[in-house]
Amino acid sequence: MPAIKFRGVDFIEFDTLLNDDERLVRDTARKFIEENLVPIIEECNRAGRFPRELVKPMADLGFFGASLNGYGCAGMSNVEYGLVTQELERGDSGVRSFVSVQSALVMYPIYAFGCDEQKLKWLPAMQKGEKLGCFGLTEPGFGSNPGGMRTRARKVGNEYVLNGEKMWITSGTIADVAVIWAKVENENDKVRGFLVETDRPGFKADDIHGKWSLRASVTSGLSLQDVHIPEANLLPKSGGLKSPLMCLNQARYGISWGAIGAAMACYDCALQYSMLRKQFRDQPIASHQLVQEKLAWMISEITKAQLLVLQVGRLKDANKVQHQHISMAKRNNVWMALECARLSRDILGANGVADDYPIMRHLMNLESVKTYEGTHDIHTLIIGASVTGIDAF
Amino acid sequence: MKILVCMKQVPQKDAPLKLNEAGTWIREDVSYEVNEPDAFALEEALRQKEKHSGEVVAITAGPTRASQVLREALAKGADRAIHLEDNGFVGLDAYNTARAIAAAIKDEKFDLIFTGLQSDDYGYAQTGVILAQILGLPHATIIMQIEKNDSGVRVKRELEAGFFQFVDMPLPAVLTIQSGINKLRYATLIGIKQAKTKPLRKVTMAEVQSAMGINLQKIEKMYIPEKSKNTQFIDGPPGEIAKKLVEKLKNELRVI
Ligand SMILES: Cc1cc2nc3c(=O)[nH]c(=O)nc-3n(C[C@H](O)[C@H](O)[C@H](O)COP(=O)(O)OP(=O)(O)OC[C@H]3O[C@@H](n4cnc5c(N)ncnc54)[C@H](O)[C@@H]3O)c2cc1C
Ligand SMILES: Cc1cc2nc3c(=O)[nH]c(=O)nc-3n(C[C@H](O)[C@H](O)[C@H](O)COP(=O)(O)OP(=O)(O)OC[C@H]3O[C@@H](n4cnc5c(N)ncnc54)[C@H](O)[C@@H]3O)c2cc1C
Q1: Which of A82, B35, B156, B187 is least buried, going by the fewest C-beta atoms within 10 A?
Q2: Ligand nearest to the CA of A376
Q3: What are the phi and psi torsion angles at A67 (to 5°)?
């Protein structure tokens, strides 16, 4: 068990901005994570192991596709869903990533772009955790600029044939189905989404090794060589790059909450540690001005981040959110979480680099979170384009 | 079986507590949770209902914020809830709390009424027992296990020093439930959603006031333990010093 137990973080009675259900959702997720993930996460992180044993319990609680309606999904509001991701990431960004991919990047596109048969086939099984999914957009040569993707689909008779490479794909080797984004040759290279069962001939997934971040989450490379799929596997309502970007918007929104969870974990740990640890004149290090400055910075930034993402969530629930709002929340909140992790690491001195405490793990995890789902700088450009009307990519 | 579960909202176990200005209780701006044994009582009620069918009703007396425990109970599977809602329900003694609850359920017939063994904040361990007396029902405390049989229930009570007692009781009855009796379930997200549509009856102070009286017990002063240092020298031959030291550590400091 961890040396320091999380006590929650709330500086300005943020909780009073939440309704009873939102708090109950948050508290339920927090309890589940504290009791089921926190006791095993450091071992998983060391071993580079995804805690697969938590898939079923998380499904039973309704964590997968939580904001979708029907198909066994809970129909949570966006704020409620956000609070779940916050608590997941308070545990670990890798486990939150798994849930984000399953929910926002696989179930959501099936829900939004799929036909009834596809929805009935996949959504209930994915909600129950019986089937897992992955999302293949990034390629070895195209990350920030997915529009350059090389993966191609060609319609032959009543089948599509897919060829290409995908890289950095979360859950690639544990997935039953991959949502693959490819340019359709017979449709002027329009980007469309395909459901590719991972046991089809020509589909291969291999884990990326030597990864010093998100070690409790599986990351893989996918290779598709003449993979034949029935035309019924095309997501009929997908069309153009805006379809995968709509998925990313869902996931980025969840990350904006998730990052707060990681920041809270680091801050609360550093705060408690600083009250216990004594240096110089037998005084707790919390009594030194330089340490207080770090704590004050962190609690201020966490509080601002909470208010930012809550407003974005309220806009999303009112169907008024714009993609640049979500970019601001993702960019700001992941940045502040990474800074909190660094400051907290510093406050723990040498203990900060050991996995008796969660901080170094969060720090390393957040480096990925800063990069995926649109890098920090790409979101800068999205906000810049939004306020100036000029693309600077 | 129709089961009533009395549930209290208490300050979270790990919450940093601050005294109120009058020094009579803690400040309200802390996080709250369901009193631990009450959570086990609810779980037991849900399990009994799953086995024998029936209805589970959760009741709480407390301010608006206390509705959170009822929502949680409904989300976990309780069928309906009753909220005695008023700031005046904070700080009642056990007798008044029991009288208020008894008045709120006077038109209902429950087979079993569960309370937690005691509350994590006041720790009176009296509310369930007094409630049984007011309702004229048999009761048993510190319950570890409940088996329904033809004549009523057979319950297992926890005694001291690892001893247990089995008691056969007729129904209806009041049982105060010990923590750890079962494994708690989590509220599911779907359950939380469905809870919104379940009935929640509100009872005002005015509706039950005539059944209540003045508090027979109240907290006059609450304070943070003052730290004091105190050095004592123990004289005598080593054997006696050791004996006296052990005695002090055992009885005065209670560390061994
Ligand atoms: C652990 C992990 C899991 C992932 N999971 C998935 C997944 O499940 N599915 C998926 O499809 N992808 C996934 N990704 C990939 C991720 O989305 C990409 O890494 C990300 O989009 C960045 O692409 P890149 O790594 O190719 O970096 P690049 O695009 O090469 O960027 C490198 C640097 O250049 C900067 N840069 C790029 N263009 C510009 C510009 N125009 N102006 C200024 N700066 C610029 C970037 O900001 C960045 O700092 C994952 C990545 C990681 C690390
Ligand atoms: C990988 C590794 C290898 C090491 N190897 C060696 C070695 O070979 N030999 C050896 O002797 N040591 C070694 N160390 C120990 C290292 O020198 C100490 O970690 C370092 O001196 C900091 O001490 P600390 O970890 O106890 O942190 P602390 O002293 O507890 O500091 C914790 C935090 O409090 C702050 N702080 C402390 N006092 C004040 C103050 N008065 N005002 C403001 N802020 C304050 C610090 O800046 C820091 O942010 C090693 C450490 C690591 C991580």
Answers
A1: B156
A2: 1
A3: -95, 5
Residue in this structure with the two tokens 């007094």, named with its chain if needed: B130
Nearest to A286 by CA among A299, A275, A298: A275
Query: Over the stretch A333-357, which tens digit does the pLDDT of each residue have?
Result: 999 999 999 999 999 999 999 999 9
Residue A378, pLDDT above cutoff 80: yes
Q: Cα angle at A55 between A49 and A57, to 5 degrees?
A: 125
Distance B198 CA to ligand 1 centre (A): 47
Task: Classify residue B80 as exposed, middle or buried by CB count within 10 Å of its CB (0-12, 13-18, 19+).
Answer: middle
Q: Which residues are B147's β-sheet partners?
A: B154
Q: In whole angstroms, what is the distance from residue B178 CA to residue B175 CA?
A: 10
What span, in angstroms and rounded, lies between the C-alpha atoms of A41 and A96?
A: 12
Tell me: pLDDT of A390 over 70. yes
Q: Give ipTM to 2 decimals.
A: 0.88
Q: State the residue for tokens 């203990």.
A: A351
Structure letter (DSSP) for residue B186: P
* C-alpha distance from residue B182 to each of B9, B47, B82, B143 (Å): 20, 9, 24, 11
Distances (CA, A) of B138 to A250, B54, B130, B176: 56, 21, 11, 12
- pLDDT band for A1, please (50, 70, 90 cuts): low
Contact B187 A28 (CB under 8 A): yes
Q: What is the pTM of this model?
A: 0.91
Cis peptide preceding B172, ω within 30 of 0: yes
Report residue B123 as tokens: 């720790």
Closest CA to A269 of A209, A333, A346, A196: A346
Strands A219-230 and A203-207: antiparallel
**Distance of CA B215 to CAs B8, B112, B116, B219, Å?**
18, 27, 21, 10
Ligand nearest to the CA of A375: 1
pLDDT 10s digits, A77-89: 999 999 999 999 9
For B113, residues 6+ apart whose C-beta sits below 8 A from its C-beta are B3, B4, B5, B6, B128, B131, B132, B135, B137, B172, B173, B174, B175
Instruction: Choose the mutation target among B17, B36, B189, B190 for the interface with A, i.e. most A CBs under 10 Å.
Output: B189
What DSSP string runs through A105-142? IIIHHHHHH--HHHHHHHHHHHHTTSS-EEEE--BTTB
Question: Which residues of A belong to the active site?
Answer: 373
Number of Cβ within 10 Å of residue B90's Cβ equals 15
Q: What tokens were used for B65?
A: 């914020």
CA distance linking residue B140 with residue B169, whole number of Å: 9
Contact A20 B33 (CB under 8 A): no
